[in-house]
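Reopening this ticket.

The earlier resolution said the output was attached, but the attachment link was broken on my side. Pasting everything inline this time so it's all in one place.
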Amino acid sequence: MFAIKPTADNLELIARQAVEGFIIGLHKSPFHGFSVEFAEHRQYNPGDALRHIDWRVYGRSEKLFVKKYEEETNLRCNILLDTSSSMLFPEDKSDLNKLQYGCVAAASLLMLMKRQLDASSLALFDEDIYFRSDCRSAPAHYRSLVQQLSRTFDLSGQQKGSDISKAIHQVAEQIHRRSLVIVISDMIEDTGELAPLFDALQHLRYNRHEVILFHILDKKHELEFEFENRPYEFVDLETGERTRLQPGQMKERYIQEMNLFRQKIENQCYQYNINRVEVDLSEPVDKVLHSFLLKRNKMQ
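Inline output:
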């Protein structure tokens, strides 16, 4: 857990500390570069990496052949951060809201890519993508991206909707080499329709990108609907619509609908082979990233 609370001024320091913390114990990189396209086989020579041996061919012929690829690349990582108004919840200044949490997570992942000498890009979106960088690996590039996240950290006073599917489609059309795409969002769309979102995620997978979804939610309020038993006025942060109600009267139905929403996303991510990581705001960012990277490291 961070010793000090993340702020816009110390975001780079916090991200660097997080990486130094969760990289301990990982015996290899949690992310690897991609081989762009399989080309042909050639006979195995002593010293060739065993991971390139085609064991199916060996099973048929009892001869060792390795796969040759047209191009070997380092990892190219594209991070998409949702900055719509729903990400400003909760508005309690004593804790991180979803956007601030996402900024810390994005900065930490960028620092990890920098450490691995990999290329990364950052896209910020609400109703449209309003910031998108090139995919580079230079130290100055990473500093500029973290500085952009620092400026985004205290974003407020806006009333912006979200079009997650549009942003994902745009990025999918602009990425021309196989990449890792990390989406950080609460997955709350203006329309409430999930089909366009799933089409966009499928677009990424069709183009052979690896996709990781960090689904950020406030467990206490958004999942368990924990409020005092008194009248509240709930405000839609994206549309400004206001509703007065007694939480106890809606709690059971709300939880059912929210569980259905989460299950739909989980099912579709499983269907498209997308790694979904559900993140609770009460969990320290470094702990969430450490647990995820440790799990990923063991699976490789």
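Reporter confirms the inline version is readable. The longest strand covers residues 210-217. The chain has two domains: 11-28+73-299, 38-69.
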